[in-house]
Amino acid sequence: MNNFDERERLAWLRLIRSENIGPATFRRLINQFGSARKALDQLPKLAQRGGRSRPLGICSPERAKREMAQVEKAGGRMIFMCEDEYPAILANIHDPPPVITVKGHAHLLSRPAVAIVGARNASAAGQRMAALLARDIGAAGYVIVSGLARGIDGAAHKAAMVQGTIAVIAGGIDVVYPREHGELHRQIAENGLLLTEAPFATKPSARHFPRRNRLIAGLSRGTVVIEAAAKSGSLITARLALEQGRDVFAVPGSPLDPRARGTNMLLREGAILVETAADVLDNLAPLTGLGQDELPLLRWGQAAPAPKNIGEETRERIYGLLSPTPIQMDDLLEIAAISPAALSVILLELELAGRIERLPGDRICLCAEDGSEQATARQQPA
């Protein structure tokens, strides 16, 4: 996009690394103010209007520059969503990361991809199946995407190394996880591509893996699941793929093996049964409307008209309509009886103040702990 210069790159990184700002909030800020620099200027005022009593933690220019330098020194680089190399298929998910850090062959992002995921404690047969599918799907021209975990992920990456593989990791681009995959991590950086949205040096924790899984699904035209327990990260990836309008495939397994319960459940729910690579290749639906000029969720450079006359009484009324029970955005808009633009601004203020949480399905609820001065005052007896 025009005018996306180094100053705006730095501002984008500062904005996404600031407190209470994730990909969806980032998008709302850009759409509201037209640029990251203008959004950064407005953050303190927005958070204060939302009821925040202490300063918002805004990423400093020095911290952002330091991260950029660390990534470059480690052999990686950052790709921003306004840049041509950013994969259009990823830009069209609900909450695409504004910036991704990559290390390796970034041209793989321009090729169609299929994800292969599954159990960490995979059987020998499961790992063999993953390798066969990765090899044959890769030979058909697809890049194999997975999460560099033990078991199925590792088998898929190794088998696809020659044709092309992308490892989406939960931590920083410099962090090897799990430790036993140190050599595989190095090989993918040399022959494939490592990709993450996490800041440099981030150590992965449990909360990072569902976010990584949405990127695995988001980069891929379809997701193949091999051996997954009834409650597993692989099923989260499959659910996210369905939400993104992508195909889900599953390899059936023995009812006697707990590792097959998740895949068999997916098949009962309509996933495409896979016995060979042909079952995947013959059923991949073409994705259309994913051109880089058709990014529907981000309107960089086009500030939204600011709604006027949002008084404190209106803000209090909207806050009073919210509770710990999630409510659909459309329902809240109907009950609130105000303009969508005004409601959007109020919710953005509350979000930056740390008082509300956005949930999948365009739902909103109060945070479990609201430490704002206004909330504390409300809890005092009259």
Describe the structure.
The chain is an alpha/beta fold and 382 residues long. It has 16 helices and twelve strands. The protein has three domains: 6-85, no CATH class; 89-281, Rossmann fold; 312-379, Winged helix-like DNA-binding domain superfamily/Winged helix DNA-binding domain (Arc Repressor Mutant, subunit A), CATH 1.10.10.10. The strands form two sheets. Strands 1-2-6-5-4-3-7-8-9 form a nine-stranded mixed β-sheet, with helices on both faces. It starts with 5 loop residues before the first helix and ends with a helix.
Classified by CATH, the class of the largest domain is Alpha Beta
Number of strands: 12
Return the string of H and E elements. Answer: HHHHEHEEHEHEHEHEHEHEHHEHHEEH
Do you know the CATH architecture of the largest domain?
3-Layer(aba) Sandwich
**Tally of helical segments:** 16
Global outline? globular
> β content, as a range?
5-15%
Strand order of the largest sheet: 1-2-6-5-4-3-7-8-9
Structural class: alpha/beta
CATH fold group of the largest domain: Rossmann fold
Uncertain stretches of 5 or more adjacent residues: 289-296, 371-382
Radius of gyration from CA coordinates: 22 Å
Helix content estimate:
40-55%
